[in-house]
Amino acid sequence: MECSFALTGKGYVIVAADTTAARSIVKMKTDEDKIKSLSPHLLMAYSGEPGDTVQFAEYVERNIRLYQIRNIYALRPSAAASWIRRSLAESLRSRKPYSVNLLLGGYDTASHEPHLYWIDYLGTMTSVPFGAHGYGSYFALSLLDRYHDPEATLEEGLATLKRCIDEVAKRLVVAPGKYIVKVVDKDGVREVEL
Amino acid sequence: MARRYDSRTTIFSPEGRLYQIEYAMEAISHAGTVIGVLAKDGVVLAAEKKVTGKLLDLSGAKEGGYGGSGEKIYLLNSNVIGGVAGYTADANSLVNYARTAAQRHLLNYNEDIPVELLAQRLCDMKQGYTQYGGLRPFGVSLLYAGYDPHYQFQLYHSDPSGNYSGWKATCIGANNGTAQSLLKQEYKDDIEVKDAIGLVLRIMSKTMDSTTLGSEKLEFAVLTLDSATKQPKAKIYKPAEIDALLQSEGLGKKDEDTEMKAA
């Protein structure tokens, strides 16, 4: 089943998501990238109803790009998160709401701080030091609570993430096999190998 | 020749000019002066009030509200102060629009609108009036003194054509040429707010017709950062505070009694 994790550290945010695309009990593929780069300093991991997720992620991606082209500056992570939350909240009150859960990680180039936002399909948004969606969150959150350090280096942060993934692999019946991991910091967005 | 082309804003004259816009700018150059100076740690605005008189009821500006008499200097958002020169009635409608635009940004993005974006929003509207619809453009120039995390303190100017530009120090309204050249001589890149206040008031006293400055002829505002919260702090001075400031800068009215004693 779908799992996504994210955690902040000293000047960076790590975002990880599983890569399985499943329908019913069947795995259709295992190399699906469920983390979108919305701007040079913004990452979004999405999970939920297949189809809704991709549609909504592309809608967000295009709108954030449009803001960047129209105006002089890119949206800051907090502003982007607020806009996305609002879109979800409006969608929830429409005839056919998107059921998409998000982890939004970004690096604010104006204040030089990393930011992470946990957003769900009901339009709940909280700024968090670490977060997770899916069944994996039941195992990962307690580990992150114990091991997360906002001053950790990238290596230490990745080690904490590895603990979460290993624990989920060990305990969860329907654990995903593969993850994609991306990092955003002052240099922008990049993919890393775990 | 001009007469055939100046009754509509939408029509170019054969020399390639839009007369209505030039007339609007002309109207502004008779309006009360507004000076803005960008300092290292803040922005200063000062404006000359033209509508004065013994019988004018100014009690509303003395207390309550957020400062300012509602003639020249307005709070557009918690991070932007606007100074207007031109038709006050036109300005009111633009100020209203600016405040709405700023609140809409707050609603959508949960952050204060960046200063340049607000200037852009107003200029889009002003430009619209040089091309469609109504008979005349807005007869208003604005100075925007603001703060945002992207570029910190900023000062912008916009005119009736919908052009806008960023400035270190600038001036609109009557005598703007004189003030501009004084600013050019006296402005220093690393000026601080307390020096900028003195500079603005000194230039104001030189460009205004009246011999002594006083709260009945002057509006004044400063935008700084709150030292505790690091949030922008907009202060529009109340009449009593302006008089106190002028006194401390040595530009205020002399108290007749003390002069008599000295003599």
TrEMBL record, chain A:
The answer to whether the entry has keyword Cytoplasm is: yes
- Provide the protein's localization: Cytoplasm; Nucleus
GO CC entries = cytoplasm; nucleus; proteasome core complex, beta-subunit complex
User: Where does this chain mainly localize?
Assistant: cytoplasm
Per the UniProt entry, what are the Gene Ontology biological process annotations, in alphabetical order? proteasomal protein catabolic process
Domain of life of the native organism: Eukaryota
Query: What UniProt keywords are attached to this protein's entry?
Result: Cytoplasm, Nucleus, Proteasome
**Listed SUPFAM superfamilies:** N-terminal nucleophile aminohydrolases (Ntn hydrolases) (SSF56235)
- Function, in words: Component of the proteasome, a multicatalytic proteinase complex which is characterized by its ability to cleave peptides with Arg, Phe, Tyr, Leu, and Glu adjacent to the leaving group at neutral or slightly basic pH. The proteasome has an ATP-dependent proteolytic activity.
Note the subunit structure: The 26S proteasome consists of a 20S proteasome core and two 19S regulatory subunits. The 20S proteasome core is composed of 28 subunits that are arranged in four stacked rings, resulting in a barrel-shaped structure. The two end rings are each formed by seven alpha subunits, and the two central rings are each formed by seven beta subunits. The catalytic chamber with the active sites is on the inside of the barrel.
Tell me its family: Belongs to the peptidase T1B family.
Protein name as catalogued: Proteasome subunit beta
Biological source species: Piloderma croceum (strain F 1598)
TrEMBL record, chain B:
Q: Which keywords fit this entry according to its UniProt record?
A: Cytoplasm, Nucleus, Proteasome
Give start-end of the signal peptide: none
Instruction: Please list the coiled coil stretches.
Output: none
Which compartment or compartments is the protein found in?
A: Cytoplasm; Nucleus
GO CC annotations on file: cytoplasm; nucleus; proteasome core complex, alpha-subunit complex
Q: What range(s) does the Proteasome alpha-type subunits domain occupy?
A: 5-27
Pfam families, A to Z: Proteasome, Proteasome_A_N
Q: Which CDD domains match?
A: proteasome_alpha_type_4
One Gene Ontology BP term is: ubiquitin-dependent protein catabolic process
Gene3D superfamilies reported for this sequence: Glutamine Phosphoribosylpyrophosphate, subunit 1, domain 1 (3.60.20.10)
Against InterPro entries, the record matches this protein to:
Ntn_hydrolases_N, Proteasome_alpha, Proteasome_alpha-type, Proteasome_asu_N, Proteasome_sua/b
Q: What PROSITE patterns does this protein's entry cite?
A: PROTEASOME_ALPHA_1, PROTEASOME_ALPHA_2
UniProt function note: The proteasome is a multicatalytic proteinase complex which is characterized by its ability to cleave peptides with Arg, Phe, Tyr, Leu, and Glu adjacent to the leaving group at neutral or slightly basic pH. The proteasome has an ATP-dependent proteolytic activity.
Summarize subunit and interaction data from the UniProt record for this chain: The 26S proteasome consists of a 20S proteasome core and two 19S regulatory subunits.
Checking PANTHER family in the record gives: PROTEASOME SUBUNIT ALPHA/BETA
Q: What is this protein called?
A: Proteasome subunit alpha type
